[in-house]
Amino acid sequence: MSSKIKVINPIVEIDGDEMARVIWHIIKDKLIFPFLDIELKYFDLGIKHRDETEDKVTIDAANAIKEFNIAVKCATITPNAARVKEYKLKQQWKSPNATIRSILDGTVFRKPIIIKNIPPAVSNWKKPIIIGRHAYGDIYKCSELVIDRPGSAEIVFTPFDGSTRTILKIHDFNDKGVIMGIHNIEKSIRSFAKSCINYAINEKVDLWFGAKDTISKQYHGFFRDIFSEEVENHRSKFEDAGIVFRYMLIDDAVAQIIKSEGGMLWACMNYDGDVMSDMVAAGFGSLGLMTSVLVSPDGKFEYEAAHGTVVRHYYEYLKGNPTSTNSIASIFAWSGAIAKRGELDNTPEVVRFAKILEEAVIKTVEDGIMTKDLMLIARPSPERYALTEEFIDAVADRLEDLLGK
Ligand code: NAP
Ligand code: MG
To answer: How many other β-carbons are positioned within 10 Å of the β-carbon of residue 214?
Structure first.
């Protein structure tokens, strides 16, 4: 084989758990190392190593992303009580994604991969619908209370400067009921809006934002106003990129999304993003086709697959049984990171390699070679499905061909 393509600056590599970790290493050995001369700053976030380091490795990884700007991450276990027992953990460590996200102050964008013979459930969807979810506050950081007797519920705001309190009535309860207090902060909404604007301008896709400001004039109106202000500040960049910003009521946005051909970034409030990202993922086929990137307002990027560690497949793998786990989203995490590295380093041959890697994956599926999850939704459906490693081998063959090796 001829010489490898040189990547000038390092990429932070974050290893993970279970079946995702198994495919991760096959991808590196067969699709990355044979072709690239690349330095990886490696962090092992496998659950055992997080436990051994008291989760310090997660913080070290996040700081490395700050230093080197680009990272690629394998899916990791977020431990619950059952996992603490299974892996004999010292404690129920926090979600690594939440830790990294809070250190980078980033926004997560999820984008499906479109392949001709994997038709979306919504037949007019032709281009990816990208979802940006505001991942701070609202009902995810709320105080709530079940009301078990008659009484009066109020919102009280007490200023730290000693000025007059504000008291608003929520409801006078004559009977049982329930209440909730939620909040958000301007800084977080603004950096969310900025991240969405950067992403839309970078990818040259229209930006949509939906809220319910007709009903929630203050809370949702606050989001709408900040979004509009930030868009106004970037007006000329929108024009240069040939893209538009649309504000809609959230219910209108949902209807418009279904009727659209895709190709927009849909910025969502926290709860909407949680719900709609799963709807969009299911609509485009399989979790194995959903990519995810964490973008910070100051331009750090962490690429990963949206799916988890695919634990059921891993237990089969441990028993020595054959598996058919879809590696596409993980491969695209690598290609996404490599392309962005090449872009920042100004090395077009690196960007080109990443694009060819993606082409090789798509060609493999279009040639009828795919894992079981895709076989069920492919049109036409292939006669058999590929095993985990068979699929990656088929991609490697096409990658070599396309690179002209
Ligand atoms: P999951 O790993 O995404 O898997 C859910 C199911 O979706 C799988 O059992 C499988 O269905 C299907 N699936 C997902 N990815 C697939 C792929 N690449 N190829 C084929 N099928 C795929 O979610 P989970 O079971 O809820 O979570 C497992 C672990 O992952 C948990 O410990 C969780 O904390 C962690 N997790 C991590 C991340 C992350 O690091 N970003 C995200 C989500 C979850 P079948 O079993 O029917 O084949
Ligand atoms: Mg969800």
So the answer is: 11
| C-alpha of residue 348 to centroid of ligand 2, in Å | 36
| Two structure tokens written together for 248 | 């809609």
Task: Report the distance separating Cα 137 and Cα 150, nearest Å.
Answer: 29
Q: Which residues pair with 181 in a beta bridge?
A: 143
What residues flank ion ligand 2 with Cβ within 5 A? 274, 278
DSSP tag of 181: E
Contacts of 244 (CB under 8 A, 6+ apart): 206, 207, 238
Number of neighbours of residue 124 by Cβ within 10 angstroms: 10
Q: Is the CB of 78 under 6 A from ligand 1?
A: yes
Per-residue pLDDT band at 165 (split at 50, 70, 90): very high
DSSP per-residue codes, 333-384:
HHHHHHHHHHHHHT-HHHHHHHHHHHHHHHHHHHTT---HHHHTT-SSPPSS
pLDDT tens across 285-306, in order? 888 999 999 998 888 999 999 9
